[in-house]
Amino acid sequence: MPYLSIRGARLYYEDTGGSGEPVLFSHGLLWDSHLFHRQVEALRGHYRCIVYDHRGQGQSEPPPGDSVIDLRTVYEDAVAVIQALGLAPCHFVGQSMGGFVGLRLAARHPELLRSLALLDSSAAAELPLTLARYRVLTTLTHWLGLRPVVDRIMSLYFGRTFMRDPERSAERALLRRQLVANPRAVWRAMQGVIHRRSVEGELHRIQTPTLVLVGEEDAVTVPEVAERLHQRIRGARLKRLRCGGHMCILEQPQAVNVALEDFLEEVERTSLQESGMAAAAN
Prior knowledge:
- It is built from 11 helices and 8 strands.
- The longest helix is centred in the last third of the chain and has 29 residues.
């Protein structure tokens, strides 16, 4: 299996290769690189697609000991992955937790990114009441695993339309099993995510072309949070998907693919136009 040795950990990754511009995908909490398989299939004909598992999730190794995997560490891993694979500047697609990473990259290392797509994500820290609830879920996971809390997580992650659709019951059952399959040690990543610091004060630094996508039924990062990102990141585009929850990428993969393809094509067109104008000026 392909692994990168990154800052004391071995991170699992997959790379489609090819000569197209690189797109790096960063997954959400409790999932892994497989989350993006439909996006990779849609984009690999034109782009070089790279997916990886955050340390302590999926097939990537957790660091030794029993310490929390804080978001700063995960963000620094992403910097190292881009540098190790020679991807800069790359398109970056982050879902939820992956979006937390992408925002930090765009604000602190703009030279590494060509574009940024934020899927159901946020720049804010957790609110006190929400944090208290998430601490309970994390503590239960630490001692008992995800099985006792999986129904609550499903209701948070997925919109009511998806959860009530009788034709998608088998799909829900499969996703539930995938969540339960997480080891108890995933609490270390959960703890790091829920205690992340706000980066709202850094949004003014972001000059990278940015897409903000959110589901209208997202109960974790509600549409108003996406609106704030859209307003505070210069030139950001906003796409709201009806009947989508926090996991639009699983609930409405085709709609997400169309939004991503349109955005990446727009970034490419703008870049070519700017290159043409620069050449004409010289």
